[in-house]
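Input (structure):
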């Protein structure tokens, strides 16, 4: 009995050891979980900015070479624009702007005559009426009147020259298209119907068809090449907002406009240019 036990135990040990590699091969390999990459949000609109500007022309874009007696004018030296820009690098940016340019209108007034029909009615003592009618002239006001308007769309590029204590000087310029209009009514007359009654006599003056008093009307709408050059300084007063102050020379070499020549007569000139001081606000979209 003891001999059998001594033989059986080593045999069982051999069988157990022989089955170990097979059982080990049945185990699944360990699962390795890679750490997920950290989520980094993407900034929407990074590099883009909105802007708005107002400008003040220090010279008159629409020159009047002679100001005769009776001359009146209304000019707006103010320009304004809105647009969007993009920072390509820390030193270079581009913009697309749409704006309103300075405007003007004038009137050179003088005395002239207007034609019409005058009807005189006399009431007689017996209640009857005597009527007489005929062609007459009467004094009235004449004028040479003109107006100028212009708009533009510009593609601009700027170089920022570094930031010093929050101030960033820049230089730049642009090219684009200017849409301008002018209207000139030379020799127009302001004829007004008039009636009066003195005693038993009534007088009525009726002007001719108003179209004959418009004078010589000339008008045109134009699209012309425009360009600008400028420089200034920017100051950032918050994370997203900053203000610009600068100078700009703006020109539309082939734009036509109405004015008065050296003799005080209405004339159509060519070439608009002016110097202006500009104040702008930028808002970065990030």
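Output (sequence):
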């Amino acid at each position: 009995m003891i001999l059998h036990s001594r033989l059986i135990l080593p045999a069982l040990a051999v069988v157990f050891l022989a089955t170990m590699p097979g059982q080990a091969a049945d185990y699944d390999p360990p699962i390795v979980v890679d750490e997920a990459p950290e989520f980094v949000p993407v900034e929407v609109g990074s590099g883009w900015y909105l802007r708005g500007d107002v400008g003040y022309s220090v010279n008159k874009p629409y020159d009047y070479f002679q100001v005769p007696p009776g001359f009146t004018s209304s000019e707006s030296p103010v320009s304004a624009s809105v647009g969007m820009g993009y920072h390509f690098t820390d030193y270079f940016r581009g913009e697309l702007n749409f704006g309103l340019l300075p405007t003007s209108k004038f009137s050179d007034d003088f005395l002239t005559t207007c034609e019409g029909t005058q009807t005189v009615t006399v009431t007689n003592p017996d209640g009857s009426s005597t009527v007489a009618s005929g062609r007459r002239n009467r004094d009235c006001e004449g004028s040479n009147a003109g107006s100028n308007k212009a708009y533009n769309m510009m593609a601009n590029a700027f170089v920022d020259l570094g930031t010093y204590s929050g101030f960033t000087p820049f230089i730049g310029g642009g090219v684009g298209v200017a849409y301008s209009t002018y209207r000139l009514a030379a020799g127009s007359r302001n004829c007004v119907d008039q009636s009066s009654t003195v005693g038993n006599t009534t007088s009525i003056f009726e002007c001719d068809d108003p179209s004959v008093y418009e004078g010589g009307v000339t008008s045109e709408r134009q699209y012309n090449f425009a360009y600008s050059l400028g420089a200034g300084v920017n100051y950032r007063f918050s994370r997203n907002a900053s203000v610009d102050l600068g100078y700009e020379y703006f020109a539309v070499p082939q734009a036509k406009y109405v004015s008065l020549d050296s003799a005080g007569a209405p004339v159509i000139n060519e070439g608009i240019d002016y110097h202006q001081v500009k104040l702008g606000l930028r808002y970065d979209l990030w």
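Notes: The chain has one domain: 2-284. The radius of gyration is 43 Å.
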